[in-house]
Design a protein that fits this description.
Order of helices and strands: EHEEEEHEHEHHEHEHHEHEHEHEHE
Number of helices: 12
CATH topology of the largest domain: Rossmann fold
Structural class: alpha/beta
Number of domains: 2
Largest sheet: 7 strands, parallel
CATH superfamily of the largest domain: Glycogen Phosphorylase B
CATH architecture of the largest domain: 3-Layer(aba) Sandwich
Shape: globular
CATH class of the largest domain: Alpha Beta
Length: 324
């Protein structure tokens, strides 16, 4: 007999759609994804990038899903906590006869409401997040003391299983007194099948693709794929590239954000050569940029939890340099 599983998440995310399809095709699982917002399936405004197009891969195919009405007066996934107030989650969990409820994160009102409701209804409750311990240890003692109380007694008490994405995330839960036996490894992932297929299709076309994009066919291309913001620290990479020199090397920024104009001004002011800004690229365009690169760099700072572009780059067998 299939287990009925509800997976509550803020909005459709390109990294998770392949996971939902796999779960839906697995024996013994009857999955329904519950979305709190439609961000991502149509052209939308991003708080740091501006207007961005809908993702050009299917996000709602291959699994069952529902969109819950959001009653928040400040409805937005960028309005932390009260940006998502999907009161219909109560009836959905009560009438849906779910055996297991998986909640992604605890930073919205709806998430907390779902945790409490599911527990009161006697459901098996799982929680997935990606907070690393390193970020916590930088906070003042008094903030960590308050957070420990809130997490232990107001949130984590309703959870049966904690799904951790990596060792740093596992250590976060252990720091907040989650017992080892409640921890289950559920790593972050991307659509490896799609990206590996694109790698095999494009791997022998590097010179041709570089020509088409107006880049030198020879030399080393260092690529950065992310939002151009303080968290991703693109200036660290740009300054490092400046120090090593640009002879037979190129630096390619793929992405957009509020730091782009500052980065471009820095390049112009210092008269740096072989630094290129490709702008934001959609999902089907990204493989072409990974395929022309030789090295992938993501020098993120405080606020970075994982960086799934690293997973994507590894599918193209790129050496990866990341910050710790």
């Amino acid at each position: 007999m299939n287990k009925k599983v509800a997976f509550l998440i803020s909005h459709p995310i390109q990294y998770l759609t392949p996971l939902f399809r796999k779960l839906s095709s697995s024996n013994g699982i009857d999955l329904t994804v519950l979305y709190c917002d439609s961000f991502g399936i149509k052209e939308r405004h991003h708080s740091e990038v501006g207007t961005i197009p809908a993702w050009d891969i299917p996000l709602l195919e291959g699994y069952k899903y529902k969109f819950l009405k959001n009653y928040s007066p400040t409805a937005s996934i960028f309005s932390v906590f009260f940006g998502l107030m999907n009161l219909g989650i109560i009836n959905e969990l009560r009438k849906g006869e779910y055996d297991v409820v998986i909640v992604y994160g605890w930073n919205y009102f709806t998430n907390i409401l779902a945790l409490v409701t599911a527990k009161l209804l006697g459901k098996k409750v799982m929680l997935r997040g990606d907070n690393p311990l390193s970020h916590e240890l930088l906070k003042p003692d008094w903030k960590r003391w308050i957070k420990k109380g809130v997490l232990q007694y107001a949130i984590f008490r309703f959870v049966d299983v904690f799904l951790y994405v990596g060792e740093a995330n596992k250590n976060f839960y252990k720091y907040y007194n989650v017992p080892e036996w409640k921890l289950v490894f559920a790593p972050h992932s991307v659509d490896n099948e799609r990206f590996r297929g694109e790698y095999r299709r494009l791997r022998n076309k590097k010179s041709e693709l570089r020509r088409e994009l107006g880049l030198a066919e020879d030399g080393v291309i260092v690529i950065f794929v992310a939002i151009l913001n303080d968290k991703k620290r693109p200036f660290d990479l740009l300054r490092a590239f400046e120090k090593v020199g640009s002879e037979k090397k190129s630096l390619l920024f793929v992405g957009d954000g509020y730091l782009r104009k500052q980065l471009e001004a820095y390049v112009e002011e210092r008269k740096l050569k072989n630094v290129f800004f490709a702008g934001l690229k959609n999902q089907t365009e990204l493989p072409y940029y990974y395929a022309i690169a030789d090295i992938f760099v993501l020098p993120s700072g405080l606020g970075e939890t994982w960086g799934l572009v690293v997973n994507e780059a590894m599918n193209f067998e790129l050496p990866v340099i990341v910050s710790d």
